[in-house]
Structures are given as structure tokens and as C-alpha cells.
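INFO  loader      accepted 1 record
INFO  loader      residues=106
INFO  predictor   begin
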Amino acid sequence: MNLDEARNVIRNESDAPIGRLWHATVSICSVENENHVSLEEIIACLKRSNQFNRVTLVDEIAVSALYARTGRERKNGHAAYEDFVTNAEDWLSYIRSSQAGSGKQR
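INFO  predictor   done
INFO  writer      dumping C-alpha cells
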């Protein structure tokens, strides 16, 4: 799946099955696309997955990318995924406060 198709899945396919969301998230969160994807697009993947009301592979991929791109500290260091923050609104708040504190505008 190319990046444009992945973006379309996340933005417009409200009934996309979890496997299709996973595939789109992998494309959006890939290291190869890092310079072409905003943090907000990664959070959009997380929001879509949050609708399932359980942690999915989509959450884990999106959150891994967010931690890597933002440098956010994890609560328990490198423990397995249990300490990942998977709530999209928490991430939005974290990014806003980080940008405000550093003077960055995005």
C-alpha cells in the first residue's frame, strides 16, 4: 500500500477492517515515510484504532512511531508494550505541551 492510499484508508474508510487499518498504519508509520508524515497523521491512525476499545497492533505500531519521533519517555523504560500510552487525546496533549515548551510551531 502506498502512502496516498494509506492516508485515504485512515481518513475516509470509516468501515475499513482492522487488517486494512493495520496495513495503512504500517505504511504511514514506516521509517521510509518519516519525512512525509506528520505526527497528526500518526495520531489519526491511533484514533482509528482507539475505536475498537482494546489495544490492537495498529495502536502498537502508531505508538512505537510516536515514541520514536517525539522522544517521549516511557514509564517503565523498555518493558513490553504494557506501559505504552495508547490514548490519542493524551498524545495530542503531550505534543501540544512539548511544542509550546520548545517554541516549535507545526
